[in-house]
């Protein structure tokens, strides 16, 4: 071997061959596959969500009876104007609002306090967190029937307890305010634990450094709750308010089973919009009017959720401007 040959530079490494380009079928599948994975959801939503919504809007413009659903008489907005002139519609709307306030406000306040307690380290914390969810897992029929017995006028446990402190028995099923309190109590009992766990999850996402800094500044646990916990839970609180508002607007099972009457008592004293819809559609067989009530409820929910979002946005803007 000559000296020139021994000092020759090594040959450069051969460049790796580029990976083969996927074929047109594979490229097309990569483009279509996300939509294919989402197709079952959208198919079910279109069949059981969108189509009933649009068909209900269509039926609300006609006079349709349950006995003869094929005979449809055009009414336009007649079903909606008939609702505005029906005194029982306004009673049901007022009852829905009052029961919603009586059940939602105490429920969320109690859930917030319960979540604050469960956030501390204590013995049996896992058991307690599971136990608060048991009312939510209970059947609404079973829970309401039990509370109907508790709120019985003659032999109810609640009136027995009131009698021990010198209060006369209350007619929980016939009095307007009393019956609405009874219905709200069932709702509070069922949903407080559910909302407490949602608040608890939100509390655990708040960094511990904020609490440590507040403690170093001399803030008590009460001040930490108001100045650290509540601001950190604002999105969670907004979510629970929106969900509770939707649930209160659609309230049906609890008032129906409290006395077993679709009219919501003798004088409609606790008939909600859900019960009023059921009474018109399956009590009086007016499917067109029932469809109009359903759309009024839908629009009411949209308005209430929009107001909640608008209030939350304005509040966040004010705090950002400080």
From TrEMBL:
Cell location: Cell membrane
Entry-linked PROSITE patterns: ABC_TM1 (PS50928)
Alphabetical UniProt keywords: Cell membrane, Membrane, Transmembrane, Transmembrane helix, Transport
Chain segments annotated as transmembrane: 37-62, 97-118, 130-151, 292-312
Domain ABC transmembrane type-1: 93-308
Amino acid composition bias (Pro residues), ranges on this chain: 9-23
Primary location group: membrane
InterPro entries associated with the record: ABC_transporter_permease (IPR051393), MetI-like (IPR000515), MetI-like_sf (IPR035906)
A single GO cellular-component term on record: plasma membrane
Gene3D superfamilies documented for this protein: MetI-like
BP-aspect Gene Ontology terms: transmembrane transport
Membrane topology designation: Multi-pass membrane protein
Annotated stretches, region: Disordered: 1-25
Similarity-based family: Belongs to the binding-protein-dependent transport system permease family.
UniProt xrefs under PANTHER family: ABC TRANSPORTER PERMEASE PROTEIN, INNER MEMBRANE ABC TRANSPORTER PERMEASE PROTEIN YCJO
Protein name stated in the entry: ABC transporter permease
